[in-house]
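Technical note accompanying the year-one report. For the benefit of new consortium partners, we illustrate the data format agreed upon in the data management plan: each record pairs a sequence with a structure-token string. No post-processing was applied to the example shown here.
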Amino acid sequence: MRHATEHADFPTAELDTALRGGPFHVALRAAIAARGLPLQRVQHHLSRHGVKVGVTSLSYWQQGARRPQRPESLRAVRALEEILQLPDESLIRLLAQADQRPATGRRPGRSYRSLTEATAALDRLRAELGRSLDGGLHTLGHHECVRIGARRELVAREAHHIVRAHRDGVDRLLAVHHGDPGCSPADIRVRALENCRLGRVRWDQDTGVLVAELLFGTRLRSGDTFLFRYGIEDGTAGTSREYLRRFDLPGGQYALQVRFDAAALPVRCHRFTQHSPAAPRGGRQELSPTGPHHCVHVVEPRIRPGIVGIAWEWQ
């Protein structure tokens, strides 16, 4: 066990200040500077701890261009605390605080911590079901329609997928649903609507992540295309303020439509994008839920790794 007093010998007050108040990248940069280690040596020490992280990633972390998010990256942060002789949980604590401080007068979206925890939960659920990240499928088209109810809750969503197999024998896809805070995954229902049937379903109560197997009933050969639809019936959480979709792999077109109940219309809507959960939001564009259908939408002609979403504000 390392104790908070062990970093007292570092030559600068900057490190002590950064460890107390952050942000993460400043504390990491100060710790590396205080130890006098080039990034190549830091990478070497990490490899001796059984953790592989590139020098470029380390550079991005200490510049604040990116933050660690995957389980392997969080393992690296814990190893860095030991390598740099820092107190236990000092860097991890700063990561947990990141994106938890909303701007004055604004409601926060999903925090960096919640997205990181959801990613870890999703990785575990995928492993339980024995599925890889892409499952042998390439996305040609992914269209979603999200319905927000009169209580301002996420009532349901429907997804239409067009996929192409890039290896033989693919016969299913893992559908992922991330409910709003306070949802009850055990009460969320998955419906196979077209060209598929429901297989195994797993969820994580703490993060609200649910994954469901959608079975095609046929084994695709490499190059085969397939179309299918499924729906999610939720309505188990409180007020919904955004819907986002994270993509780990590139693909074809993505379209997201959010439809509001006429009895509960937001005062503002906008689209946004993020390179990763650690990155700031950009690509903001105002959207107006006008017309008889009370809906807004975004269309991304080509899916790129990252996050696409729509956020809205209530009166």
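Partners are asked to follow this layout when depositing records. The radius of gyration is 22 Å.
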